[in-house]
Write a structure and sequence with these properties.
CATH superfamily of the largest domain: P-loop containing nucleotide triphosphate hydrolases
CATH topology of the largest domain: Rossmann fold
Order of helices and strands: EEEEHEEHEHHHEHEHEEHEHEEHEH
Protein name: Putative ABC transporter ATP-binding protein YxlF
Number of domains: 2
Shape: elongated
Organism: Oxobacter pfennigii
Domain ABC transporter: 3-231
Enzyme class: hydrolase
Structural class: alpha/beta
Radius of gyration: 24 Å
Strand content: 25-35%
Mean pLDDT: 90
EC number: 3.6.3.-
């Protein structure tokens, strides 16, 4: 595992930052950290990056204890509220960060070309940062975080202030990084973004993990099946066997089922028992609904 925590806890005096968090992040996946403001997300990331010490618990990053210098050399980090000098050009900015990483001078030009290509900023590197759009500045920040060729990249709210085009550009970069075998740890308030690019996620509230697992498992809930059909009492009775919360109004039926495999069987029951099926539409809850349900203790 690239990240593994065991009951990781941080107190600020008598206030809980994060409480007994135990998660695992696999190599090469995009992992989403979700939670309302003040939930403990920033505290958790700062512990993993070695910027804070935990009060108790254990954590391993890249198979090393948190804070290990060798592991930190292979970590990239883009904070949420970064601000770069507007008078710098893109090349100035990247060269400065390359010096902070202590990259060998002879390797810097090739490395700059590489990261500029990854974030699609080639051709803009000689312009001043102050002329960049918000999306370009965000991509420049990601480029800085990639200079050390990290195995693990932390991105804190990378799309929160971007327009739809800028968000798609960042999503495409995350997907590209996954294809390169890198692990991306994404902290975001934009649940749709996490749902589109992440393989796994954790939802935390008041410092505690309230949901954790693969995205498809977090979303794994009963399927709501909306049916437009003419049915009789025999069909209605047989449909009730498939699931719960069956609602029948005129020619509309709603039923909650747990298995996609039941859908063709439900269609067969309607057709084979004298009914007329006009429409059948399955739907699952979104990550937003799963998030609200987890935060509210099961009530959306």
């Amino acid at each position: 595992m690239v990240i593994q925590t065991q009951e990781l806890t941080k107190y600020y005096g008598d206030k809980i930052g994060c409480n007994k968090i135990s998660i695992e992040v696999a190599e090469g996946e995009a992992f989403g950290l979700l939670g309302p403001n003040g939930a403990g997300k920033s505290t958790f990331i700062k512990i993993l990056t070695g910027l804070l010490f935990p009060t108790s618990g254990k954590a391993f990053v890249l198979n090393k204890p948190i804070g290990n210098v060798e592991a930190r050399k292979k970590i990239g980090y883009l904070p949420e509220n970064f601000k770069y000098q507007e008078w710098m050009t893109g090349v100035d900015l990247l060269s400065f960060h390359a010096s902070l990483y202590k990259l060998a001078k002879k390797t810097i030009p090739a490395k700059l070309d590489e990261v500029l290509d990854i974030v699609n900023l080639k051709g803009h590197e000689k312009y001043r940062i102050g002329t960049y759009s918000k999306g370009m500045q965000q991509r420049a920040g990601i480029a800085c975080a990639l200079l050390c060729d990290p195995d693990l990249l932390f991105l804190d709210e990378p799309t929160s202030a971007l327009d739809p085009i800028g968000r798609k550009e960042v999503r495409d970069i995350i997907i590209k990084l996954k294809d390169m075998g890198k692990t991306v740890f994404l902290n975001s308030h934009l649940l749709s973004e996490v749902e589109m690019v992440c393989d796994s996620a954790a939802i935390i509230n008041k410092g505690n993990v309230v949901s954790f697992g693969k995205i498809q498992d977090i979303l794994k809930s009963k399927i709501t099946l909306k049916i437009n059909a003419k049915i009789n009492d025999v069909i209605l009775e047989k449909l009730s066997v498939f699931g719960s919360n069956l609602i029948h109004r005129n020619d509309t039926i709603e039923i909650s089922i747990e298995n996609n495999d039941d859908i063709p069987d439900i269609a067969a029951v309607i057709i084979n028992n004298g009914g007329k099926l006009y429409e059948l539409t399955p739907s699952r809850q979104s990550l937003e609904n799963a998030f609200l349900s987890a935060i509210n203790g099961g009530d959306v």
